[in-house]
């Protein structure tokens, strides 16, 4: 098998779906992932999606588009998407490529992404 | 790069580390993962490790040993390990192979694994 046959697991944690990308995402996998996330949102009524890319060392325009489409699909189903764990080098490359991922919120790690979605940071004293 | 160079991300969620395995784990990756988990436990004083294998369709004796060693290492650092999301077919194969993963707790999915580690089914997180 190798990197081909498998799918990317979509985990549910409370009201949030968590997806951890590792290595490269091939065409078929991206479509499958988008489908899985969308149907899981509809089924389980989650309100947020966290996509961890700390294991990804290259975000190209293909992956950028996949992420944006996942976020757009989730948004249509009333779920917010946060991209977590982007490596600094990836951020630099994205800016150089002019891919600033509009419409995607980001967080330094999954824990902060969860807090962002929960709307109440653990140490936050200020409430709206 | 491809399936080779990358590492498996170890995410922290509250008091728990979460690792999502996808596809195959090569020798070097297994060692790296074990090292990462152990050092993260020591650094961040987490009390549990959840390894999600819902994206894994074959658990052989190598992976079985890796998982057992991760759990043993975590146990020495006072963290409990739960294996989450095992596919039914994987469970059947493991039994046929006589690999019943002694010393590893299991849960149907990550959410239940978190609950198991929290020891309290509703509110997994420490509240102030």
UniProtKB/TrEMBL annotation, chains A, B:
Task: Identify the residues that the record assigns to the STAS domain, covering every copy.
Answer: 6-117
Which residues are in coiled coils?
none
A Pfam family per the record: STAS
Which superkingdom does the taxonomy of this entry point to? Bacteria
Classification via InterPro entries: Bact_StressResp_Reg (IPR051932), STAS_dom (IPR002645), STAS_dom_sf (IPR036513)
| Entry-linked CDD domains | STAS_RsbR_RsbS_like (cd07041)
Q: From the Swiss-Prot or TrEMBL record, give the protein name.
A: STAS domain-containing protein
Organism from which the protein derives? Streptomyces dubilierae
């Amino acid at each position: 098998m190798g990197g081909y046959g498998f799918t990317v697991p979509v985990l549910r944690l409370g009201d949030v779906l968590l997806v951890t990308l590792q290595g490269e995402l091939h065409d078929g996998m991206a479509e499958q992932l988008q489908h899985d996330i969308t149907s899981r949102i509809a089924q389980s009524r989650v309100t947020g999606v966290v996509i961890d890319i700390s294991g990804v060392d290259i975000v190209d325009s293909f992956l950028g588009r996949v992420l944006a489409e996942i976020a757009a699909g989730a948004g249509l189903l009333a779920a917010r998407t946060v991209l977590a764990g982007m490596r600094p080098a990836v951020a630099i490359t994205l800016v150089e490529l002019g891919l600033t991922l509009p419409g995607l919120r980001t967080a330094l790690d999954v824990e902060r992404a969860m807090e962002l979605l929960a709307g109440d940071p653990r140490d936050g004293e200020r409430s709206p």
